[in-house]
Design a protein that fits this description.
By secondary structure, this protein is an alpha+beta fold. About 40% of the residues lie in helices and about 15% in strands. It contains six helices and five strands.
Length: about 130
């Protein structure tokens, strides 16, 4: 994904700060605004939130709600290969998995109820093998 091209095509400035944040985001699977704040103390909180909002608006990031932790984000190219998330109750490890059966069931139920799903997210709490 070429962040500079996407920013230019959406009439937004390409800044060193945005490029640096995007490079960091590409190395992560899931992250929060707090994760960014911890790793980039030189970037102001307001700038971080403006960048997250912009990246969501121009489809660089996908915002997802995982458990009680609040909003998390993932790079949109990862989101296009839809997957679900499971979080270990003990160690907090997050596992991603893809399941055609789960997605198919969700869409079938929505159709029965006359709903159109724009996006869905399924979060499962579990105990991983290491903790059980």
């Amino acid at each position: 994904m070429n962040v500079e091209k996407i920013l230019r095509e959406s009439w937004n400035k390409v800044t060193p700060e945005r490029k640096k944040l995007f490079e960091w985001m590409q190395e992560k699977h899931l992250f929060t605004a707090s994760d960014i704040e911890s790793d980039f103390s030189s970037i102001g909180r307001a700038s971080i939130f403006r960048t997250l909002r912009l990246f969501v608006e121009i489809w660089i990031l996908r915002r997802i709600q995982l458990w009680e932790a609040g909003e998390s984000y993932e790079i949109e190219c990862c989101a296009k290969h839809h997957h679900e998330h499971m979080k270990c109750n003990s160690c907090g490890n997050i596992l991603s998995f893809a399941s055609e059966k789960i997605c198919s069931s969700i869409f079938k139920e929505a159709k029965k109820l006359w709903f159109h799903i724009d996006e869905h997210s399924l979060s499962i709490m579990w105990t991983c093998k290491s903790c059980s």
